[in-house]
Amino acid sequence: GSRTRRRRDRPMSLSTLLLCSATSAIHHGHVVDHAARTQPLILTALPSADADEALPSTFDWRTVDGKNFVTADVNQHIPIYCGSCWIHGTLAALNDRIKIARNAAFPDVMLSRQAAMNCVPLLSAPDMPPPGCNGGDPWSIHHYMSKHPLPDESCQPYEAKNGMCNAEGQCRNCFHPMMVADPTTPKVEYSSPGCWAVPFVGYKVSEYGGVAGEESMQREILSRGPIVCSVAADATFLLDYEKHLVDGVYVDETYLPAGGGPSGHDKSEIDHDVEITGWGVSESGLPYWTIRNSWGTYWGERGWFKLLRGSNHLFIEEDCQWAVPDTSALEENIQARAVGDYVTGMQVKPTDESAADLLRRRAAAARAARASVATPAPKEPLLAARVPAAAAAASTSSRTAGIFTYVVGLTLVTAAAAAFGAEWARRRQRGEEEAGKEGSGGDAVLESVAPYTRA
Questions:
Q1: Is 85 a catalytic residue?
Q2: Pick from 134, 137, 86, 140: which is nearest to 113 by CA?
Q3: Per-residue pLDDT tens for 27-72?
Q4: Residue ranges in 319-441 assigned as alpha helix (H)
């Protein structure tokens, strides 16, 4: 895509775009906002200041000592085409930085792309609707998150379309239509059919800024995690990616010195944002960046690619951004200082007393709701009259049968006990008589009745 946003009444098809010159760009969603970029928010020393430490020849956050520190891959063009690479590249880097900062501990965090679509404005046009699918600047996301928390993907899944930046546009929950109609369902303020806004665990950034140049980029990646960088992803890159691989590394000959070099291209071609997670060297000695794209796992190397490193290829080393995520709200939730409720959303965990009071109030409200529901009148009075009478008769019959069963059972138990007592007395008397006749031989007889005496 070009830097200039398309008017909706003048759509341009992909085939039309491809008829443009080789320097024309495809609208992926990067719209640089240099004029509105304020001073970076930097609180700690930058990694690039530590230039004495030697850099490794290869490094990749996907495998560090056998551990993976990157999150899941996604696709910006599903369910419909959307120029939201600026959101995908930026949030991918933040997702991974959260995982790195927490040493890959549970849970993985995927920030809500749709909430960013709905709420992050262009800094140069803060009073206009957020650009969303029309393209934006990673800097704008970092600036926004330094002031406002962003929820995770479970709050607001990706829809690939511009939405409203209201409470529900950031985090929502919904009832089934039958629950909405049920008078015993807790009352909530619906902002759309069956759905309402809820508080959430939010994520901010504590620092952010820019970085450029091969070594500075490497030091930032190595020290604090992946970065998001802009790149010229033209029609050749989009449609003929595999034809331009050299030892697995993407190389566009027109950007090489023999082909005119970067000077033969215009920076207006920069139209895409991607995440860089590391670097390496191919078997033939080509240095490359390890990059995550946002076009799905069926593109490139399962959604990733390698790009020639060290020569500002496709302007990849021209304009990169970094930010330090703040996960304090997540830690409060994990440590049980905050807890989520289906209706009221995330809140400070109530004390035992306040929780019990909440349960009592909800139970009272449910009883009141049930009591307020009128019992529908029977359609057939005669049948309705017979049913209670039959039920009463059945109840009387059931009680009579129960009494009869009890009396019979008691009689049988009494008779069995009497027979058992008589048999025990008879055997005991006979044992005594045998003992008098045979002396010690009576012990065997007494033993024979012992089970009865123990019983």
A1: yes
A2: 86
A3: 566 666 666 677 777 777 778 656 778 899 999 999 999 999 999 9
A4: 328-334, 352-371, 381-438
Alpha carbon distance 150, 120 (integer Å)? 10
Of 27, 88, 272, 313, the active-site residue reads 272
Tokens 């990749």 appear where?
Answer: 60
The residue to which tokens 């992909």 are assigned? 14
Counting Cα atoms < 13 Å in the Cβ hemisphere of 316 gives 31
Structure tokens at 97: 């930085």
Which tokens sit at 223? 């020290």
Q: Enter the pTM of the model.
A: 0.70
Phi-psi label, residue 315: left if phi above 0, alpha if psi -120 to 50, beta otherwise: left
Catalytic residue, from 28, 82, 85, 119: name it: 85
Alpha carbon distance 444, 455 (integer Å)? 18
Categorise residue 395: left if φ over 0, alpha if ψ from -120 to 50, beta otherwise: alpha
State how far the Cα of 170 lies from the Cα of 118, in Å rounded to an integer.
8
The one catalytic residue in 95, 173, 293, 333 is 293
Question: Letter for the amino acid at 405?
Answer: T
The token pair that represents 222 in the structure block: 């190595």
Residue length of the chain: 455
